[in-house]
Write a structure and sequence with these properties.
Elements (H helix, E strand, L loop, with lengths): L10 H7 L22 H4 L26 E3 L9 E3 L8 E2 L7 E9 L5 E8 L11 E15 L1 E9 L4 E10 L4 E2 L4 E9 L3 E9 L6 E11 L5
Antiparallel strand pairs: 1-3, 1-5, 2-4, 4-12, 5-11, 6-9, 6-10, 6-12, 7-8, 7-11
C-alpha cells in the first residue's frame, strides 16, 4: 500500500514499499545532489520521488505516485500462445496502478523441449511507445497455474543486449492449481542504460519432449501491492 501522506516514515517502510527486505542496508540516501544509481532516492524515481536537492524524507509521502507503465509488442515479438486482456496486439496494455493493471494468460500443449518465448518492451507511455524504461524497476504481480504436465514457467526482464537482469522460476513441476496468494516482486535496483523487455518463457520441466498447461499472470503493475 502507498506510504502515508503525513507523519513519520521509516527507512524500513520505504524498503518494504520498494519490494525489498525491510532491513536492507542503504549506504546512502541519494549519493549526491543528483541521486545516484542504487541510492534510495533513485530507486523511488519511477514512483514520483523528487530528484532535486535538497532531499527530504517528506518527499516519500504518498509514494508511489501513479506512474505510466505499459507493455508494447508486435506480431514479430509475440509468442502466439500468450494473450493479454484489453488488446490483441499488446498496444495499450497499461499497468500503472491497481485499477489499471495487466493480465496475461497462456495455454500450452507443446511437443518440443526447447524454450518458447514471449517478450515485450517496457514503456512509460503505451501508444505510441516512444518512452522506454531504462532504469531500475519494480514489478508487482500474482500468478496461477490451473493445469500442468511437465511444464516450467519463468518470468524475466532483459536489457537491450538480451542479458537477463531479473529472473523468477514460478512453476517447475507437475503441480496443478498452484498460485501466489500474495504479490511476487520482480525488481532490479542498480540497472542503468538501455531499454528493457519483460518476458515469459516455457519449456518441459523434466527434459522430455512434451509439456502442457495453463498459466496466468494477474494484477501486474509497477505502483504497489494492491
Amino acid at each position: 500500500m502507498p506510504l502515508p501522506s503525513s507523519g513519520q516514515i521509516s527507512v524500513s517502510d520505504i524498503n518494504t514499499e520498494l519490494g525489498r527486505a525491510s532491513n536492507t542496508a542503504n549506504s546512502n540516501f541519494a549519493g549526491g545532489t543528483t541521486p545516484q544509481s542504487g541510492s534510495l532516492f533513485k530507486l523511488g524515481e519511477a514512483g514520483g520521488v523528487n530528484q532535486t536537492a535538497p532531499h527530504k524524507m517528506s518527499e516519500w509521502y504518498n509514494y508511489p505516485a501513479e506512474a505510466d507503465f505499459g507493455l508494447y509488442g508486435n506480431t514479430s515479438l509475440i509468442n502466439a500462445d500468450w494473450r493479454g486482456t484489453g488488446s490483441t496486439n499488446w498496444n495499450g496494455l497499461n499497468g500503472k496502478s491497481c485499477s489499471n493493471d495487466i493480465n496475461l494468460y497462456g495455454s500450452f500443449n507443446e511437443t518440443s523441449s526447447t524454450y518458447k518465448f514471449a517478450y515485450f518492451q517496457m514503456v512509460t507511455d503505451v501508444n505510441p511507445p516512444a518512452n522506454k524504461y531504462t532504469n531500475a524497476f519494480t514489478i508487482y504481480y500474482k500468478w496461477s497455474c490451473s493445469s500442468n504436465t511437465n511444464m516450467r514457467v519463468d518470468v524475466y526482464v532483459l536489457d537491450n543486449n538480451t542479458n537477463t537482469v531479473g529472473l523468477q522460476t514460478l512453476v517447475n513441476n507437475n503441480t496443478a492449481s498452484s498460485s501466489s496468494a500474495s504479490y511476487n516482486v520482480l525488481a532490479y535496483s542498480s540497472y542503468s542504460g538501455g531499454h528493457l523487455y519483460f518476458g515469459f518463457r516455457t519449456r518441459s520441466a523434466n527434459g522430455t519432449s512434451s509439456y502442457s498447461g495453463t498459466f496466468n499472470i494477474t494484477d501486474m503493475n509497477v505502483v504497489q501491492q494492491c
